[in-house]
Amino acid sequence: MKYVVNAMEMKHIDQYTIEKVGIPSVVLMERAAHAVVSEIMKEVPAGTLQDRLCVVLCGKGNNGADGLAAARMLHIIGMRPVVYFPGEGRGEEWRTQYQIVKNLKIPVCDLNGLEEILKEDRAGLIVDALFGIGLNRGIEGEMAQVIGMANQSRAYRAAVDIPSGISADTGEVLQIAFKADLTVTFGSVKFGCLLYPGSYYCGKTVTADIGFPKEAYDFVNPRFFTRDASEAPVLLPERPANAHKGTFGRLTVIAGTYNMSGAAYLAALAAYRIGTGLVRIVTPRDNRGILQMGVPEAILTTYDREDFSLEPVMEAIHWADAIVAGPGMGINSCSKAIVRAVLQEAICPVIFDADALRIIGDSEGLEQQLKVSHVVTPHLGEMAALSGRKIQEIEEDPVMAAREFSHIYQTNCVLKGARTVVSRSVGRDYINTTGNSGMATAGSGDVLSGIIGGLMAQGMSPFDAACAGVLIHGCAGDLAAKKKGERALMASDLAEALCLIR
Q: Is the peptide bond before 197 cis (omega within 30 degrees of 0)?
């Protein structure tokens, strides 16, 4: 688990480390600069810097001081740094680092000199240390011109902590932003490095440990965390050697409608692939034949669309250890009655997905029946219907949208997107970083619902199952993409790739 922080949280962590723990600011600065140079040397292609300049763009604050220290370290290892800065910086650390640069006779250039270097393609590396995580305004004037020139250069580009022009809190581009090949961020990854479009501008992001102690994080208590792919196998439920199928839970998947059996198939398949002992599919009678062939392991409970009765559905609701409701159900009198029944009668954890979310969003008062044992899994459009907010507003700040919804309705919210956010009513929330564009395909969400439902049926709490499920779903997508390519990826490939996570 790794913390994700905003600008204010990181500032408080930094202050606590300096003022309460007593680690001098200049020590943290030295470690930061060393981390930047070390990561650059690992990543820059061989021969890129041979007989070429390393341009370091330094601002007036501590980010600029980090850049000055990095310029000195590049000089020490035999590179040819040139420093640009727009005027004398602020603070004792900046002046100290600049004096060292002067003592070592590292060249300093102004805007005209920088323009000449970049136009003549003399730079093999550009290091961005203009603005740090505290930037909260649009970049204009000379700084915008500098970033524009840097982005047009063919040099390898590295950013210190976060690319200049990216909001550390939202990933928003503040008019113009440095486009990095590598970003070395310090202590904890920032929201702006994870969320789009900021993530796009970061390139490869490396989080460097520069010495912030655990006590500083405990004091600040960051609100979000993330995990990487290496943690996925550890999150899977244990499988005792003396177990039987009942040990691994009973999942009811209420899904599908006429001519829409695929969602039920994918959710059930994913649930079995994640280790669920028994899966029961509740679906219209029309789907019986194809589902018996596609998932013969599943128990089928069917209902007649024309002569509908809730009785078989209720039996399946009470049988389950967890329920998935909604994939491919359509919007009709049967599906509406089923969603209401699940909300009112289910005493086990429930995932509401797809059409179930549309029914809840369109029916006044149903969202009030959501519980802490429930998980909703909306995409942007479904979230707009549920929350009454505009899609663009949600897209600009998905973290806040998910957090507000889960707090208002006291439930768990999985807001799906390029960076899926998992929020709960109380406690630290999760941002996912696994997955790829190939997963933007029909049925991908059905697989996710099956994974989360299967994990809940095996005894995981709704929030833990949602976090683990989103991580594992993304890992499966990445594994499948390596085999099939992102362009050719299908939802069934995701379900099959679950076999590789162990």
A: yes
Query: Under 8 Å CB-to-CB from 115, ≥6 apart: which residues?
Result: 149
399-427 per-residue burial string, b: 16 or more CB within 10 A, e: under 16 = bebbbebbeebebbbbbbbbbbbbbbbee
Q: How far is CA 129 from CA 7, 126, 275, 289, in A?
A: 16, 10, 48, 63
In the chain, what is the straight-line distance between the N-terminal and C-terminal CA atoms, in Å? Answer: 18
Residue owning tokens 């993330």: 226
**What is the separation of C-alpha 27 from the centre of its chain, rounded to a whole number of angstroms?**
31
Residue 99: phi and psi, rounded to 5, are -60, -40
What pLDDT score was predicted for residue 178? Answer: 98
Q: What is the DSSP letter of 45?
A: P
Low-confidence spans in the chain with pLDDT less than 50: none
pLDDT on residue 47: 84
Q: What φ, ψ does residue 478 adopt, rounded to 5°?
A: -70, -40
Tokens 């789009």 sit on residue: 196
Could you count the other beta carbons within 10 Å of the beta carbon of residue 123? 22
DSSP string, 292-349: HHH-TTSEEEEE-SSS--SHHHHHHHHH-SEEEE-TT--SSHHHHHHHHHHHHH--S-
SS3 of residue 209 by DSSP: coil
Q: Return the pLDDT at 457.
A: 98
Q: How far apart are CA 492 and CA 195, in angstroms?
A: 27
Question: Which letter does DSSP use for residue 91 in this model?
Answer: S
The maximal CA–CA distance of the chain, rounded, in angstroms, is 88
Q: Determine contact, residues 349/323, Cβ cutoff 8 Å.
A: yes
Phi, psi of 299 (to 5 degrees): -85, 140
Q: What is the DSSP letter of 385?
A: H
What does the chain come to in residues? 502
Backbone angle region of 486, left / alpha / beta, with phi > 0 → left and psi within -120 to 50 → alpha: alpha
Residues 6+ apart with CB under 8 A from 120: none
Kind of pairing between the strands at 412-415 and 421-423: antiparallel
